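Tutorial sheet, problem 5. The two components below are modelled jointly, 1043 residues in total.
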Amino acid sequence: MAETLASFEPIMRLPLPFCCPSGFTLALRLLFVLLLGTGSVFRAAAQAPDYLPYYSKDTLRVAQLAATQRAAVKTYFALPKEGNSAYRDHYRQVVQEAARDVYNSIRYSALLDPVIEPFVQQVFARILKANPQLPAGTRLVLTRNPEPNAHAVGNGIVMLNVGLLPRLENESQLAFILCHELAHVACHHMENGLHEHLTTLHSKDMKREIRRIIDSEYNISSQIKALALGFSLNTNYHRRRHEKQADSLGYVLLARTTYDAPQAYRALQLLDTIDEPETTASLPLASYFSCADFPKTFAPVPDKPTSIFTVQKTATALETTDTLKSHPDCAKRMRFLHTLAQGRVAEGPQPASSPEFARIRYVSRLEVIQSWFDYDCYDHALFEALLLLPQQPGNAYLHSVVQLSLYELRQHLQDHTYSEVVSNKSTRNPKNFNELIHVLHGLSYDDFRGLSTCFAQATGAAPAAPADEYALAARYASTSLTSEATAAVVLKEQYQKQYSGGKFDKLLFPAPAKAVRR
Amino acid sequence: MFFTKHSALTAVFALAVAAASAQTKTVDGIQNMRHSALSPIYAGNEVKGYLMFGRGDKADRKNDNYLLDFYDQDLAKVSNVTVQKPSGRFTLLDNSFNGSAFAFYFFNSKDETLELETYDTSLKKLGTKVIGELTKGDKMMIANQQKLEDPSAGGMMGSGMSLFPVPGQGFVRNGYTGLMKGYTLAMYDDKLQMKWRVTSPENSKQYETVGITEASDKYLLGMMMRRDGLMSRTINASMVAFDVATGKKVLDQPVETSKTEQLSLSSFSFDPEKREFVAVGEYYKPDDKPFVNKSLGFYIKRFNEQGKVVSTKNYGWQREVASLMPAEAKPSLEDNYVNYTHSITKGADGKVYIVSEQYKVVGDGLGIAMTALGGRGANVTKGKIGNLFVYEIDPQGKLTGVKFYAKDPSTATLPAGSSYMSAGIIGHIMKMQGDFDYQFLQKNDANTQFNAVYINFDKEKGAATKRVIGDIAFGNNGKYAVDKIDMTSDANYSYLYPAKPGYVMIADYYKKKNQLGMKLVKLNI
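Model answer (structure tokens):
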């Protein structure tokens, strides 16, 4: 019921960050963040030099939006009259799950900030205005999800992850991505896909095949796997067709706007390398986390394979054959678009963004860092903050999020949940991220004190009085890390007085019963 | 069967959760799960992966598909191997990795055969071996081993039939002759070609069984138990060593007999740097009775490769140990506890660490009463497990530290006649029964960091009571640290396994969901 821009996820659901244990935990985590009250609401102006990630204790607006869209999904996907009872039951179940997922996605991750959200809504409105034939009721929801992605829901909702924005170069590229999702909506891909999926699944042929397998008694598991693979390939074939249509129609929709249509091609180019970090250079860990008080050496990640196995991984047909993937390779999509645009395409790095879009990219990047933190993915939060820090050495928010991440990592180490919040090293990760992971895996409880001390020294003296809630929370975190118990108590009292029920209140100062399990 | 797996249609078509790269793994479709279904794979000192063995679906009228799933040290699935063997009659007795090959030791109860299979590191099959004509002793031990592997045992390990890895050279399989009259040892190379086979002398007047404890580059070490008859209550233990190249017995030396003192043997190992055998145990006055009289202390005896005593060091409770013994340990020492040595390990800095756990025999009131009234088969003895110690000995053989770790006592049921056995033998029986709280010692390849891991729980109240994993960390940084992990969960069964250095692995089995959750837990040390 959802069509995504770049992922291979078949059905709408809240995409999970890599290290988070479950969607449920993630939802709870965001619920926790959003339910917290605060004495102050950050309303960073677009022109303000320093931006702090958006937070509001007012959850009414987002709750209403979530409830409205949940109802809209249920209404839109009315139970069809055709099909057998199994088909209809399955259809009802899928719609229920989709409605619940839409509700949870919006309720716990919608980003209704005063800077980014109005901007993307204005881009969306311009597209709709230029394309009045698009279905009524389409709506854009910006989410806090840090993964660079977007997807459409059947009833016309387009979900845009804030993680996509820092990766784009201009407004026109954003407009093409929104057009691509709107094309899925206009072509009814989700409804058609659901219908095709369920029709095949509940067809007489499928039932006959399943019955045959069960009756055969032997090797049922491998036969079912083969059947499921064939089913996936068939589904993916149809989804590829949908992607091609969405690229095609999306380009047409974009061309009708005042945006720069050649940027569609460039957007696909960017998507092709979307999983790569901004830089592949190693993070300057030693300059931030090694000092006279804690002379830690950051040895390079050993090249020696850690696995005793020498099994050659055999890729499945879904991984090796492009024609069997749910989304065609970007290169193929680019060639198709190149033909469609008759060669009028923008290629390679584009000129500097407009100041307004540059600002959107920048504040989105900070929102992404905060999202990783709020999702308990402190490794990602640290990585993103340390990537940006050399460009923004004086950014107080980045200083805060590093100290807060170190504090949370130590807490999880103490609570024996460290492995749940720190990723594994993987060949799929960027090399510099693996280097950070390698360091994090080797840390002991006492190391965090040294890391915090050195980082504070490296980033310069902090103002005597913390300027905002993040800074005060980070001051408490670093003070706790350095075992200054008395000072930490004072800071805790100050935080609770100044930001009663604030963003970090329950995270840093959990009630005793919850503190045990965290 | 250790675990069984099924593929429901609903599961196949269910949407997969996005691949997580956290150090956790959830496996669905597990119908039942025992501790032995999952076993760590070692390379050198370190855990480098896990093997999961279980039964899948039917392969044909007579056979089932048996699944060998391999995971790496981070719980990422590496690959799987499927073998087709007789339905419901095929169990994994043991698995081992010798650095170049994986070996699996199966029992085929339909054909009453033992089957060995070896694979290289790419999981390509290297060899197979079927061993028929099992002796009554073999069958008894297999039956006993399978009986122990019950989920409620919570980590009890069978020890009857095993496959011992010899680094880079092959594997050694043990067996029994007759009705446990003697032993056999057979060494195979990676392709399962037999290199040698030895059996206990047929004319031996005594019953002999050997438990292999360690394989070095040159020796296969073990402890030999000798008794006059199958039901004899008097067992004598000897240190034995076999030449790993030929199988020739090069050392066979009793340690429990001495003119000046009575010794119990807790551990026997080989020091490859000094090329010496090392025996550790406790010593008593010649006429004293273990458990009635307190031991005088513990000893370390070193023998050269010819079996000649090189050095003997006694560490008396009242002398060397007393001055270093923490005050909180003293009450338990007054309580007739003796020590079972679980591990002796040498650090890269030359220090030797000995991890031991207290145990003693206690009377069972009901059992004694039943025996007095003529009841049969009643156990009159129970074992009690106490606290943990770590002894630190410097390279010159001087005792430099005694660390005491208090824990809740737990109990063990001892076989009839235990009260007539020596302290050392009873300790080994308790070890074989899985009665101790100590689980394993983890060490890194550099021999600089060690973790002694135990589970502290009230066995009398069953597995549902609160269980805490304890970890004692020590090493060449000179620091001793303790970490405690609450293992209590709503899982039907929770099992603890060794893991890569600095971690332990916990597997939680949820019967209702047919789900197994595995997670690596980083130790807070």
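Marking note: The beta strands of chain A are 2-4, 139-143, 150-153, 157-161. Full credit if you identified this.
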